[in-house]
Amino acid sequence: MSTQEASITPARRQVIAAAGAVACGAALAGCGGGESAAAAVPPGIKGKVVARTADVPVGGGKVIAKWKIVITQPSPGVFRAFSASCPHRGCAVGRVGDGVIRCPCHGSEFAADSGKCLKGPAEAPLVRYALRVEGDGIVMV
Ligand code: FES
């Protein structure tokens, strides 16, 4: 054992080890990006009613496979639309619940209010689309 190693007390070693574990955890989590700005909707769905507000639960969401989008309602009356294509390897995101959009392929998670990546391996947020609520319809704009 070197002089320098001997001078590190067990308590200090634990602190250093814990800091290393946190740093490794952050690196493994991926998720380098923040939330995305609203992007242009894919051709063919602009102006279309893609869902009814009643179909999108508060705190949850609805994946619409036909349009490859996911609509969420993070708080009552607030709706968001995102691409359902996971930025990791392109799987369609699956479940939405407790304010989180989850990808079934490798476990990435995204915030249902912003699309921000919460857990990797994805390193970027979901692409966000603009929408408008007309009556009980959710319209892509
Ligand atoms: S494709 Fe979604 S986590 Fe890998």
What attributes does this structure have?
single chain; 141 residues; alpha+beta; Rieske Iron-sulfur Protein; 2 domains; five-stranded mixed sheet; four-stranded antiparallel sheet; globular; binds FE2/S2 (inorganic) cluster
Give the ordered list of helices and strands: HHEEEEEEEEEEEE
End-to-end C-alpha gap? 66 Å
Major beta sheet summary: 5 strands, mixed
What is the class of the largest domain in the CATH system?
Answer: Mainly Beta
Please state the average pLDDT score. Answer: 81
Small molecules in complex: FE2/S2 (inorganic) cluster
Work out the strand percent: 25-35%
Helix-residue proportion: 10-25%
Under CATH, the homologous superfamily of the largest domain reads Rieske [2Fe-2S] iron-sulphur domain
Q: Structural class, judged by helices and strands?
A: alpha+beta
Shape: globular
* Adjacency order of strands in the biggest sheet: 1-10-5-4-3
Uncertain stretches of 5 or more adjacent residues: 1-28
For this structure, the CATH topology of the largest domain is Rieske Iron-sulfur Protein
What is the radius of gyration computed over CA atoms, rounded to a whole number of angstroms? 20 Å
